[in-house]
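Re: [ENG-882] Designed sequences occasionally contain unexpected residues at chain ends

Forwarding the minimal case from QA. Structure tokens:
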């Protein structure tokens, strides 16, 4: 009988974006791979897929149905390992796996950025902190992807048996890498841009957290000083139309290009001059890591994820989301000095060696391998193991 592993998340797109290499690895080890999430996309390396109505909002009544379905699936299948992701995916799965965990199942939870963090609203601390603290009792391994979350879990004595820090979800440096001037000009021509254009790039969902309005307002401050400037915004979302209206109100609709959902992010990065990021909250942003791997300097707002990746004045600039004038000044500095852009880009690219997909995969597989052993001798409930 094959041993089974279950991957859980709120939506199935999460698996396709980040976890296919691990599903493939489990198949190569002879394991049966199951996934549970909301959605109906097809996934390779998966033996059984459950469409579970997990909702992002903790107050949605469908989550009760999702919990019951998850519990039935977990109790029936006797999984050796369950790895859950995303806030609600992690909450419902760990609750549903309490009985199974007392038998043979090991539960791993990856926190892709705690909602309670430095600068987060009080409501986030009031709601999410006690939930995560409570659920740590039902977690064999808590994986964090930034240092702030890792040290907070230790300081606040989260009761997971193992608390571990890994370097995010990894960036594929076989796809994301710098290109020379000729290749850059070819990519620009294919997308309708000129060699002399100064291209800033940001890929993110249009929502309140990603804060694209900040970038639009900053660009408006220097539109006359940098006539060739273009802000390329890839993505969709609920605030897309609001951002389009803002560009029209500021008279910069020709300078802000809304690209929609794209599957060619690597090409868009390689043809750009710099990357920008304006979010209020990040765990460890993939968009910034991909930009750095492509040799781009990054100008970003302060949050724990950006601060972990960007050293101010070294591989970019990091500043307050309340200071659009300083942000605009940094954009102007980058435009005026290709030498500065190149120097910072090299520093960022070098930093990505620690965040490569191959390196991160080794870190995650090390965790899996520990729980793939037939017998675990450590007493249940014991804590005090923490690794970076």
């Amino acid at each position: 009988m094959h041993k089974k592993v279950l991957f859980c998340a709120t939506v199935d797109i999460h698996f396709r974006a980040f976890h296919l290499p691990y599903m493939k690895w489990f198949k190569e080890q002879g394991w049966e791979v199951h996934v549970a999430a909301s959605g109906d996309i097809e996934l390779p390396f998966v033996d059984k897929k459950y469409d579970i109505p997990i909702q992002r909002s903790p107050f949605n009544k469908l989550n009760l149905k999702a919990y019951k379905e998850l519990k039935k699936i977990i109790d029936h299948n006797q999984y050796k390992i369950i790895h859950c992701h995303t806030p609600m995916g992690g909450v419902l799965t760990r609750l549903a796996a309490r009985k199974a965990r007392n038998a043979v199942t090991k539960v791993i939870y990856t926190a892709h950025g705690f909602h309670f963090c430095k600068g987060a609203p009080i409501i986030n601390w009031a709601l999410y902190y006690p939930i995560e603290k409570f659920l740590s009792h039902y977690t064999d391994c808590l994986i964090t992807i930034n240092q702030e979350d890792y040290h907070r879990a230790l300081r606040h004595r989260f009761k997971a048996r193992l608390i571990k820090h890994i370097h995010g979800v990894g960036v594929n440096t076989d796809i994301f890498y710098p290109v020379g001037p000729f290749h850059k000009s070819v990519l620009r021509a294919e997308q309708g841009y000129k060699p002399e254009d100064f291209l800033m790039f940001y890929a993110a969902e249009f929502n309140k957290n990603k804060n694209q309005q900040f970038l639009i307002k900053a660009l408006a401050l220097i539109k006359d000083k940098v006539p060739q400037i273009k802000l390329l915004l890839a993505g969709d979302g609920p605030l897309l139309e609001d951002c389009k209206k803002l560009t029209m109100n500021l008279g910069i609709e020709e300078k802000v290009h809304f690209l929609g959902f794209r599957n060619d992010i690597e090409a868009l990065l390689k043809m750009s001059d710099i990357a920008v990021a304006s979010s209020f909250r990040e765990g460890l942003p993939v968009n910034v890591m991909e930009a750095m791997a492509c040799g781009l300097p990054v100008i970003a707002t302060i949050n724990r994820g950006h601060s972990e990746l960007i050293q101010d004045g070294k591989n970019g600039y990091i500043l307050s989301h309340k200071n659009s004038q300083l942000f605009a000044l940094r954009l102007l500095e980058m435009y005026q000095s290709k030498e500065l852009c190149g120097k910072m880009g090299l520093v960022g690219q070098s930093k990505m060696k620690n965040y490569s997909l191959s390196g991160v995969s080794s870190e995650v597989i090390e965790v899996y391998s520990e729980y793939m052993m037939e017998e675990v001798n450590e007493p249940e409930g014991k804590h005090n193991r923490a690794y970076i």
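QA comment: On inspection the terminal residues look reasonable. Residues 62-77 form the longest helix (16 residues). Proposing we downgrade this to a documentation issue.
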